Amino acid sequence: MVRIVNNFHEQSLNLRPEDYRRKLIELFHRYLDATGGQLKNEILLVINGFLDFLQSGVTPESANLARLRLYAATSGLSAEIVSEFISFLNPLKKQYDFAGILKLEDNTNIERVVEVIRTSGYYLFNEKLPDEWCQDLINFAERTPSHHDNMLGQKVGHSILHTDSELLGVVKSAYSEQDIINNQTIQRIILDPSIISIARRYLNTEPVLSGVDMWWSLKTNGIPSDDAAQTFHWDLDTGFKWVKFFFYLTDVTEDSGPHTFVKGSHIWGTKPQELLNRGYARIPDEDIYRFYPAEDVVSICAPVGTIMVGDTRYYHKGKPLREGKRLLLQPVFTNSLFSNALDSQYTSPPRIPMEVKIDLPGDGSFDVSKLLKKYTLI
Questions:
Q1: What sections of 268-338 are H helices per DSSP?
Q2: Disulfide engineering: 311 pairs with which of 242, 252, 266, 332, CB 3.0-4.6 Å?
Q3: In this predicted structure, what is the pLDDT of residue 154?
Q4: Residue 253: CA count within 13 A, CB half-sphere
């Protein structure tokens, strides 16, 4: 199957969208034949679960687990097919040239960024978050209580983070999403035209904001914590395809927790089946280097204000800290809210007090309420 997948990627570069979708389905049938039809039950669970989700907004647990098993069994091909289906049902109504904080002045620059993400899995922007925005977010972090986790992922407190928290065994300290989205600077970021533009083009459908996270990572003397995502893994987030923006709010060096990932490993069909057979598992460094050349493993060491975007279906981790602490903001845009993780949030969604001017088209061709459908606007 590896040879077949490689040939497919080489031949699909210039296919029209309808031909690409047809070829995907043909290839999926070959996966089914190769497994003796064992995946058919998983496919039915996902299809029926997706239809239930469209009706109720709730994802059946059986469908969510089948989504995971299908992804691993097909090396991501199943998610690619559903994503193409979503793009077909909900196509982009109009192309925009959104500038915003990333200063992507025209369509050519936007497409260049998106093409790099498609091939490499990430893009590191030259533009930085404005200094005053960074300072506002740092001030917010230093004045707002956060939830402290130890090495085992256990909650060990909720308070304003102190500089000696690492002495208490805290490895990660995260803010509640409600507190995060109350912040006007964060509202400006998630509604920034250039951020939305990249998400739209990469997902090839109108995006949905599925979450906004902000957390401190603290010193562990280089000892990785699985629960703090400090060993290699791929994400299975909300939906079937997503993109995450990383905003460094502290200087990040090799010893203070750089985001580290395997370039190109987000592409369906490229993950080693031996690793996928372990399921949704953490992968030791030595196994990653067994399958990928060292030059494909990239660590983003960069100053405060750095902005990066990534498709975190690639293998990635945050390196464990040997010194200092790292503050990161991470909004996530997806092509669907399909996910068991969101069930509880539909009964009591976070509330956004929209105090920020939305600098997006006012001609009705862009619907902000769809972008923020997970939330209650007040």
A1: 273-276, 285-291
A2: 266
A3: 85
A4: 6
Distance CA 173, CA 327 (A): 9
Q: What is the average pLDDT value for the chain, to the nearest integer?
A: 85
Q: CA angle, 364 as apex, 363 and 366 as ends, to 5°?
A: 105
Assess contact for 337 and 210: CB atoms under 8 A: yes
217/172 Cα distance (integer angstroms): 5
pLDDT in tens, 83-96: 988 888 888 876 66
- The CA-based angle 373-100-124, given to 5 degrees, is 95
Q: What is the pTM of this model?
A: 0.90
Segment 262-316, tens digit of pLDDT:
999 999 889 999 999 998 899 999 999 999 999 999 999 999 999 999 999 999 9
Tokens representing 44 are: 């039915």
The half-sphere exposure of 113 on its side-chain side, counting CA atoms within 13 A, is 28
- All structural domains of the chain, each given as residue ranges with its CATH number in brackets, are 2-89 (no CATH), 100-377 (2.60.120.620)
How many beta carbons lie within 10 A of that of residue 150, not counting itself? 17
Q: Which helix (H) or strand (E) holds 34?
A: helix 17-34
